[in-house]
Amino acid sequence: MTSPIFALFDPTYFLVIIGLVISMAASGYVNSTFSKYNRYRSQSGVTGTQAAQYILQQSGITDVAVQEIAGNLTDNYNGQTKVLSLSQATAQSQSVAAIGVAAHECGHAVQDAKNYWPMRLRTAIVPLANIGSSASLPLIILGVILSFNQTLIHIGIFLFSFALLFQLVTLPVEFNASRRAINILSDGGLLTAAEVPMVRRVLTAAALTYVAAALATFLQLLRLVLLFGGNRDDN
């Protein structure tokens, strides 16, 4: 029987390293892309906050507040509190990139208002994903310590799969929000025809971070299955 210590340092750890590299590359790409187009001041001269307020008004959404928060690219929309939060790099900036990011978050607000079902599904999965992320590894380690107790190990792997499910459901939600943002900016007067492709590049780069997160989570799950998923002879 393979010892627990050896199992925890199995060579399949390279899968985690690959996932980390993919995530770092995606993060670096989105930061560099945002920085590039953050230097282009929009011809309309509106800030990210003003753009968000305009888009929400034009979309008939009156119950969502817009606030500024600390950080860089920490923008988010909270459907439970109806608050659209824009980071400092977005809220007060008049750049094309900032307007694009603000429009993307408005896309989530529009999804919420229209009861976009993948967004509802993602919200429903959040508690399971949180439990899976926090409880899976302790259960697997406990199972390994207890002479590779397959019941505990399989439960742990099953719980971790909810984290991957959350990442997969997130993909259509984020891509749809970006699509809505592009449509809004193309139809409105916030950006010129020449500026819209710049926003598309920024949002495409941002979407790749979610793809990278899904891939990294899949590789972690694959490693757990390869290490602990098979039946072992405990005698």
Automatic annotation (TrEMBL):
**By its UniProt entry, which Pfam families does this protein fall under?**
Zn_peptidase_2 (PF04298)
InterPro entries recorded for this chain?
Answer: Zn_peptidase_2
Task: Kindly indicate whether the keyword Transmembrane belongs to this entry.
Answer: yes
Q: What is this protein called?
A: Zinc-dependent proteinase
> Where does the sequence pass through the membrane?
12-31, 124-146, 152-173, 207-229
Alphabetically list the UniProt keywords: Membrane, Transmembrane, Transmembrane helix
Q: Which organism is it from?
A: Secundilactobacillus kimchicus JCM 15530
UniProt entry tagged with the keyword Membrane: yes
